[in-house]
Amino acid sequence: MEKQGIIIKVSGPLVVAKNMEGARMYEVVRVSEKKLIGEIIGINGDQVSIQVYEETSGVGPGEPVYPTHQTMQVELGPGLLQSIYDGIQRPLPLIEQEAGSYITRGIDVPGLDRKKKWKFSPIKKTGEKVEEGDIIGEVEETTLITHKIMVPPGMSGTLKDIKNGDFTIEEIVAVIEGDNDETYEITMLQKWPIRRSRPCKVKKVPNVPLVTGTRILDTLFPVAKGGAGCIPGPFGAGKTVTQQTLAKYCDAQIIVYIGCGERGNEMTDVLMEFPELEDPNTGEKLMKRTVMVANTSNMPVAAREASIYTGVTIAEYYRDMGYSVALMADSTSRWAEALREMSGRLEEMPGEEGYPAYLGSRTAEFYERSGIVKCLGSDDREGSLTLIGAVSPPGGDLSEPVTQNTLRVTKVFWGLDAKLAYRRHFPAINWLSSYTLYMDNLKDYWKNNISEEFLGVRTQAMSILQEEAKLEEIVRLVGMEALSPKERLTLETAKSLREDFLFQNAFDKVDAFTPLKKQFWILKSIIGVYNHALKVVENEDFNFDDLLKLPVMQKVAKCKEIPADDEERFKQLWDETERSILSLKI
Ligand code: ADP
What we know:
Layout: E1 5-11, E2 14-18, E3 27-31, E4 36-44, E5 47-52, E6 64-71, E7 73-76, E8 84-85, H1 92-99, E9 118-122, E10 129-130, E11 135-140, E12 146-150, E13 157-162, E14 165-167, E15 172-177, E16 183-187, E17 190-193, E18 202-204, H2 215-220, E19 228-232, H3 239-249, E20 254-260, H4 266-273, E21 290-295, H5 301-320, E22 324-330, H6 332-345, H7 359-367, E23 371-374, E24 382-391, H8 401-409, E25 412-413, H9 418-422, E26 435-436, H10 439-449, H11 454-478, H12 485-502, H13 516-537, H14 544-549, H15 551-557, H16 567-582
Parallel strand pairs: 8-21, 19-24, 19-25, 20-21, 20-22, 22-24
Antiparallel strand pairs: 1-2, 1-6, 2-5, 3-4, 3-6, 4-5, 7-17, 9-11, 9-14, 10-13, 11-12, 13-15, 15-16, 18-23, 23-24, 25-26
Bound molecules: adenosine-5'-diphosphate (ADP).
C-alpha cells in the first residue's frame, strides 16, 4: 500500500494527519497499520481531518495513513436484499464469522458476495442500442423481487455481446461498444459514492399515496409515494412500532430500514425481530424485499453518520429499477448527534445546542433524495423513494434543532404523543398537531379511486376532532351540563372517531391493516351518525340516551369488523343508521 500521511493527533473518531498533499474531500483512507477505515472530512493545507469508522484506541501520532484515491462508495447488485449491513456496508453476519461477535478492526468484508452465482437472463440482444439506465437483463434476487441489471450511468452504445447463464457479480455479462469506440464491460456489480444522489431523468410531482393501512395516516395525514415524512416522538411513544408497521404493511415494493442504535440493546432487538417479520401479502419473510442498515451502540459514532447515506443510496438503486421503495430511518437524532460529536472534535463554531451550523443543509440533502422519478433509460419507467425519518427529541421537546430542521424539509408530520401512549391510545399520533402538505396533490387520487365523498367526510371528521378539544376545555371548567345537545353530539362523535377509527392495534393481524376503501366506509359510518343526529338533536323532546341506546349505534361502533370487501353490509348499515335515527324525530 502506498504510504503517505503521518498521524499528528487522535481524538476519538477524529484523526488529524499531515503530509497529505493531493488528498480530496470525502476520500477514503486507511489509518495506521491496523488499516482502519476512515474518510477525509476536512482539508487544511497538507493537513487533513479524518473521520474514522472504527474504534481508534491504541492508534497514536506518528503512525501512517494510506490514501485509496476513492470516495466512500456502496456496492450495488444482486444480494443486497436480505442483507444486514453496518453503516459502511459491511455485512454484519459475515463480519461475525470473520471476527467473532465483536467486530475487530480493519477487516475488509465486501458488501456483496463475490462467489455466489446468479442466473442472469438477458432481455436485450446483441446489436441493440442501449443507453444509460436501460435494463439489459434480470436476476431473480429473491422469490419476491426481480433484480434488474441496468447500464450504469454515463454509458451508452451498441451491445456487442450479452450472456445468458450463471455468473458471479464480477463476471462480465455484457459488452457495450460506445459511440466513440470505447468498450464498456458490464458486470452485475455497480459502485456509487454514498454522498451523491443517483441521477434520474426528471422528478415528478408526487400524486399517489403510499398506502400504509394505518387509518390515521392514510385518511388524515397521508404521505405521497416519493414524499418525505417525519415521526418525532419521545421515548416509548411508538416510533419503532410505527416504523415497523410501516415497513410491514406499506405498499412499497422494497424496504430499506436504517436503525441507529438508541439505547443499549434496542438495535439488537430490531436485528433479532426484523428477520422474523412476515410479509402480510405473501406470507414470505419480509427480509426478502428488505435491506437493513444497522448501527449497534458498540459501533463508533462515525459509522452512524455514514449509515443514512449508505441506506439511501441502496434505496435509490432499487428506485432506478422502477420499484417503489420506502426507507425508514430510526432515529435520525442519533445521526445528528454523530454530526455534533464530529463537529465538536473538529472545533467548528457550534450552532444551536451545539449542533453544527450545517445540520439544516445536511438534513435537507438527505430528505431531498426522496421523490417519484422518471428513471434513466429508454423505457420511461417510473420509480419512487419515500423517506420516513423518526426523530427522538430529548424530553419530547419539539423545538429542538433536529426536529425543527427536519420539519422544514419534510411535508408530513406524524407527531407521537407521550400522553396518548400513556393512555394506551395507539398509534399515539396526535391528530391535532400532526399535518400533511400532500393533500392537495392526493385529492384527485381519493376522488377517482375511493369516493367523491371522501374529502368532505375527512374534513368533517377533522373539524369534529378539533371542536372536541375546545369543548373539553369548557367541560373541565363548567361541566357537561353547560353543553348544548349539539355540542354533546360533537363530543360523542369525536369519542367514536377516536375509539372506533383512530385507535388501531398494530399487533392484531386483522386490525393492523385497513384498505383505503374500508377506511372511508368506517369513517362514513361514524360521520353518518353525526349528520343524521344533527337533524334530531335540536328537537325539544330529544333525549340523548334514546340515541345512544339505538341498536345501530353498537353496529357502527363495531363496523371495522365487517370484511373489507363487503360494501353491501356497509350500505345496509348506512340505511339502518338513517332510518333509526330519523325515527327518533316523532
Ligand atoms: P419508541 O420507539 O418511541 O421508544 P416503541 O415503538 O418501542 O417506542 O413503543 C413502545 C410500546 O408502545 C411498544 O412496546 C408497544 O407496547 C406500544 N405500542 C406502540 N405503538 C403501538 C401500536 N400501534 N399498537 C399497539 N401497541 C403499540
